[in-house]
Amino acid sequence: MQGNTHIVGGITASLAFAQISNDNPLVLVGAGVIGALLPDICHGGSKIGRKLPIISKMVNSLFGHRSFTHSLLFLFLMGMLLHTFIPYKSITIGILLGMASHILLDMGTKKGVKLFFPVSISVRLPLTTKTGSKVEKVVFTLLTMLSVFFSYEVIVQLLATI
Q1: Does the pLDDT at position 158 exceed 80?
Q2: H/E stretch holding 35
Q3: pLDDT in tens, 64-112
Q4: pLDDT band at 42 (very low <50, low <70, confident <90, very high)
Q5: End-to-end CA distance of the chain, in Å?
Q6: Can you tell me the distance from the alpha carbon of 59 to that of 41, in angstroms, rounded to the nearest whole number?
Q7: Taking 90 as the threshold, does the pLDDT of residue 45 lie above it?
Q8: Which residues pair with 123 in a beta bridge?
Q9: Nearest to 95, CA basis, from 152, 54, 41
Q10: DSSP 3-state assignment of 123?
């Protein structure tokens, strides 16, 4: 999936979680966007890879694309790291939600992900598409509509507390 689809996926996941938690939705969304981009640090052409080219090149040379940074192991290790060093639970949750949404979206591509890294089996959803395809545009549109719906719900909940 492309960066914009991942960003909207992170926003949607964060806003959905905001509906069932007492966490600040703005913090969740901001962190969710960062988390949604983070797994592609292994790809030099990604949004985050272009911002951090040296780190991207190192991670890619060590693991390749869609392997370690797209795995449950990476998600778990990042959760432990964030929990240890970030004092705000909402930031940690938002980043992890964004990362999880990224991994799930990439499972919808033909290549899939190495979800159980270091095991080299690729995992993908039963229905897949090519990155940048018309189907991805439909997924992007649906995620955008869900984000608008969830933001409306969050705004209504916030207004009810005033």
Answers
A1: no
A2: helix 25-37
A3: 888 999 999 999 999 999 999 999 999 999 999 999 999 999 999 999 9
A4: very high
A5: 39
A6: 7
A7: no
A8: 113
A9: 41
A10: strand
Cα separation, 121 vs 102, whole angstroms: 18
Q: Which of 140, 107, 128 minimizes the C-alpha distance to 11?
A: 140
Secondary structure E strands in the chain: none
Q: Which two tokens stand for residue 143?
A: 């995620």
Asked whether the beta carbons of 18 and 152 are under 8 A apart, the reply is no
- Say if residue 118 is preceded by a cis peptide, omega within 30 of 0: yes
Q: Which tokens is 102 given?
A: 């990224």
Burial class of residue 108, CB neighbours in 10 A (0-12, 13-18, 19+): buried
Minimal CA–CA distance to 74: which of 110, 98, 50? 98
Distance CA 64, CA 121 (A): 14
